[in-house]
Write a structure and sequence with these properties.
The complex is a heterodimer of chains A (106) and B (364).
Chain A (H helix, E strand, L loop, with lengths): L11 E8 L2 E6 L4 E5 H6 L27 E7 L3 E6 L7 E3 H7 L4
Antiparallel strand pairs in A: 1-2, 2-3, 4-5, 5-6
Chain B lengths: L2 H7 L5 H8 L3 E2 L4 E2 L6 E7 L2 E8 L7 H13 L6 E8 L18 E5 L7 H14 L4 E5 L7 H5 L7 E2 L2 E2 L2 E3 L2 E5 H4 L10 H13 L8 E5 L6 H9 L4 E6 L3 H16 L4 E12 L6 E2 L6 H9 L3 E7 L1 H8 L4 H4 L4 H23 L4 E2 L1
Parallel strand pairs in B: 4-5, 6-12, 6-13, 7-11, 7-12, 13-14, 14-16
Antiparallel strand pairs in B: 1-2, 3-4, 8-9, 10-11, 14-15
Helix pairs in contact in B: 4-13, 7-8
The chains are: A mainly beta (106), B alpha/beta (364).
């Protein structure tokens, strides 16, 4: 989480599941970012997916099916999103800052 | 009085005329005129008699009288006006996203936090809540200090709440609905809980209590930045938070941590209240700034957040708290009660501002 506080670039205006496996976030600076479920799942920041002490990833792309879907998308207070995936996992809290970081413009 | 004769002389007193002069009245907090804000309701013109409702965003509006007086004076100055009747009403707006939670009857949830313990956070929370209720708002108080609940003492009510089905009915006292661990656990019995239990307790106090329709639900947090804080910031979209601090440097520095925690979880800071600002001698009424002067207001200025006021170390506040009748309810005109009531109004104004400025977020 950033120290500088929220900026338009890290403040979503619209969050939409465009297909079972794809999420769109329209950010306050106008950027429309698309996120694929398997990619986001692989970057899960929760303690069981990313070792708290070493930062090592406990879940690897080979563990994630290509057709993974979003089962539920929920706001966490006003600062993050929490996903429930079709593999049953649901403990990751993705802050808006983190989601913006994960957006790689192409 | 024959209105028809007036009408004949002055057929032109129209709604447009009245609205155009009312447009000159600004809401100083929302920085828009009261017509554009949609505050004018039920405008009626019968001859020279003009009546309307001025529907504000909170019954505890600090500039309520000022806006009403301005509106009345401007309409009265219109040629042909004989009488102006204004009814003051209010409708508290709901924070964005809150309607989508299980607390859809609650319009705003506000956390009251502090860095360290013992700064009088609960005293301030209880008095702000009771003052808002006294202004006519529907107010709830959730005592989130599960390890050291004090609101049952301060509100003079320690009977366990009733339940209907698996939902608790909040207790009522001093015009407030409230729930506290102190109502659920015998007062001498300490709560020795690990984090997950604290998390669960707070969730139950939020979601398993029949809060009904509330304009403001104040949550009195435990000191510091722990499980309860994080649970609250994650469980519900908070309209904002109020930080209570003493003027001392050490108290303030720790308050900064609480402030950063709110910022990181994107909970807007409604402002800082400085408690124990000075001591009022009960014999000679002189002021003694025992913890230094102006610490919190300087910090607020540096951080660019509203400073909500200074509350003195006043024997009367303590006595009223101990007998279970908050000073704002029992002695509303005492100097410290006036200060606390002003602070409550400023909090209400900040809540209105936040709800006006809050960015829209669509989730599909």
């Amino acid at each position: 989480m950033s120290q500088s506080g929220p900026t338009p670039a890290t403040t979503p205006k619209k969050i939409k599941k465009v297909s079972p496996g794809e999420l769109m976030i329209l950010w306050g600076d106008g950027r429309e970012a698309h996120y694929l479920a398997p990619v986001l799942r692989g970057m899960c920041p929760c303690a069981s997916c990313k070792d708290e002490m070493t930062g090592m990833r406990m879940i690897l792309p080979i563990h994630i099916p290509d057709d993974l879907e979003f089962r539920k998308i929920e706001l966490v207070g006003q600062y993050a999103l929490q996903f429930e995936w079709s593999d049953g996992h649901h403990t990751g809290i993705y802050s808006f800052e983190y989601l913006r970081e994960l957006d790689t413009p192409n | 009085m024959a209105f028809w004769s007036k009408d004949d002389k002055n057929p032109g007193l129209s709604e447009e005329q009245v609205l155009s002069v009312l447009k000159r009245v600004q809401d100083p907090d929302l920085r828009k005129d009261i017509v554009s804000l949609g505050f004018i309701r039920n405008l009626k013109i019968e001859g020279g008699k003009v009546s309307f409702d001025l529907n504000l965003t909170t019954p505890a509006c600090p500039v309520k009288d000022q806006m009403r007086d301005e509106a009345v004076a401007l309409v009265k100055a219109l040629p042909g006006t004989e009488q102006v009747d204004v009814k003051m009403t209010s409708e508290v707006r709901q924070a964005p996203q809150l309607d989508k939670t299980a607390l859809s009857g609650v319009r705003n949830i506000v956390a009251v936090g502090s860095g360290k313990g013992g700064v009088g956070k609960s005293t301030i929370a209880v008095n702000i809540a009771a003052a808002l209720a006294a202004e006519g708002a529907r107010v709830g108080l959730l005592d989130g200090d599960i390890y050291g609940p004090t609101t049952p003492i301060m509100l003079g009510m320690d009977q366990p709440p009733k339940s209907v089905g698996n939902r608790m009915i909040p207790q009522e006292a001093n015009g407030l609905k409230f729930i506290s661990m102190g109502l659920l656990v015998k007062s001498e019995q300490p709560l020795i809980w690990r984090g997950p239990m604290a998390h669960k307790a707070l969730q139950q106090c939020l979601f398993d209590v029949d809060w009904g329709q509330l304009d403001y639900l104040m949550v009195d947090l435990p000191p510091g930045t722990g499980d309860v804080h994080l649970t609250l910031a994650q469980a519900v979209p908070l309209t904002g938070s109020v930080i209570v601090s003493t003027p001392q440097d050490v108290g303030l520095r720790i308050s900064m941590k609480t402030l950063r925690m709110f910022q990181q979880t994107r909970v807007p800071i409604l402002g800082i209240v400085e408690n124990m600002s000075y001591y009022i001698c009960p014999h000679c009424d002189s002021r003694d700034y025992i913890f230094g002067q102006g610490g919190a207001s300087r910090a607020a200025e540096q951080l660019g957040i509203p400073f909500l006021g200074e509350v003195p170390l006043d024997l009367a506040i303590r006595i009223q708290s101990d007998i279970g009748k908050p000073i704002v309810v029992d002695q509303p005109d005492a100097p410290s009660a006036r200060t606390l009531r002003e602070i409550a109004k400023k909090v209400a104004a900040q809540i209105s501002i936040r709800n006006f400025e809050a960015p829209e977020l669509e989730v599909e």
